[in-house]
Amino acid sequence: MSKNAYLDAVKKIDDSLKSSEGRNFVVRNVSVVDARGIVPNAWILVKDGVILETGILDEDLALAINACGLRASDLSVVDGRGCFAAPGYIDLHAHGAWEHSFDDGAEGIAIARAYHMLHGTTRQVLSLITNPLDVMQENLRTVKRVMQTRPDVLGSHLEGPFLALSRKGAHDPNCLVDPTPERVEALLEAADGTLRQITLAPEREHGMEAIKRFVEAGVIPAVGHCDADYKTARAAFNAGSTLMTHMFNAMNGIHHRKPGPIPAALEDSRVTIELINDGFHVENPVLRMAFKAAAGRIAFVTDAMAATGCADGAYKLGALDVTVTGGHARLVSNGAIAGSTLILEVAINRAVKELGIGLPEAIAAATIVPARALGVDKPNAITSAPLGLVEKGYAADLLLLNPGTLAVEHVWCDGHKIS
């Protein structure tokens, strides 16, 4: 897509999200699919951007329309043409797309979000890369400002600066520091209630203290980019960490005498586990193993960087140079994997067609599981309505998926028609 074309797409999405019109509609002739299963020949009634009712019988639809005080003429009707109707995807961990990162200010956020939105990610936590502390503070303030006009932005995720030097991945080693109380408070103050999660290495000095403070502030501490042993990881989870950042990547692996953090996360039912399902960060047999070992707790994430949606070539991740070849991003300096160019649309397709995972289970990993991890699967202070299911009372974050390819054909976010 040309630059002018994607700037047009950005404007259309921004205009749609700001519009108060068109949020009353019916989607008919679809198979509803979410974590609970598949319901064929279904309809979905939406009023003011919230799902009012779902069903399968025309007479029930007529009754629902009358009961809510609407007339059929008040509603736009969408023929789903036999598509799957799924909840909008939620990405807990992504850095950008379309040559822009979420660290690039409001314009960069709008451009990168547009690409993910068009491919079904209706809500996103914006991941901010490790930078000098003052830069990270300003980026947090930017996300807070953006959230005032964008319901699709759920908040920020700090991947750093409290990471293990030995497991830094594509993060600038010169910016990695211990989570002292002063640094923790500075970040919390800058975010002002909009920081959703922070990845940290619990073994760093002040690590456990920081986990407890973040939990107290309503932030999810995620174990990741760490060299923690099993005991330390268990202690982190017991201290309130309920998330593991892209499991298997940037952490010590499983050893039969040194189990490390991965078994600690797999056996703890309180922990949601991020997985990058691109077959490159984690090979298919291991992905399948993880899905079975932590059923219902796997959240697909993309870790997508600025090259997502772009051709191979030279890019930046923070201040570091990255080369993308065959869609895979690596640091120029040492060849380390530098994020991905994955989108959740592709992750769902891979899960079903390459991993053999059922469609409802795959959809769950990009909808209700991340929603539950953030606490937005029920009434909350972050979103106008719960997320993660095609269900009465939930936000009308809806996707129409091609029944053969699972490609996203139409998108609604908060009842706003996007594509």
TrEMBL record:
Domain Amidohydrolase-related: 85-415
Entry keyword annotation includes Phosphoprotein: no
Leading EC class: hydrolase
E.C. numbers: 3.5.1.25
Superkingdom of origin organism: Bacteria
GO molecular function: N-acetylglucosamine-6-phosphate deacetylase activity
Record's keyword annotation contains Iron: no
Annotated keywords: Carbohydrate metabolism, Hydrolase, Metal-binding
Protein name: N-acetylglucosamine-6-phosphate deacetylase
Organism: Gardnerella piotii
